[in-house]
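debug: dumping io for the single-chain case to check the tokenizer round-trip. Nothing else runs in this session.
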Amino acid sequence: MITYVSGDLSLSNYVQYYFDLEESNQLGSPLWKELYNFTSAYNKKDLSTMNLQHLVKEMSSDDTIFEKHLFFNTNGHSLGKLKVLMHCMFKVELILVN
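debug: decoded output
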């Protein structure tokens, strides 16, 4: 879910939810849970271009932040060896772009 400032349409936050299939089956009704809240998870004020650029730079130098990004963008699933490959690809791409 994306929230924005109505005056200038700037993006203020992004909250990602996931459908908990196992628990929903047990309850007999759909259950959506919050996976993460962008501004809280990454300690950013909003989703401005500047904040997103800073986040990419932080991910390139801080493996913890990068791993957090991978966790959120795989809906909390472990990636094992794929995580290492994605991490390497991300670092190479940053080098090529800069």
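debug: round-trip ok. Residues 2-97 form one domain.
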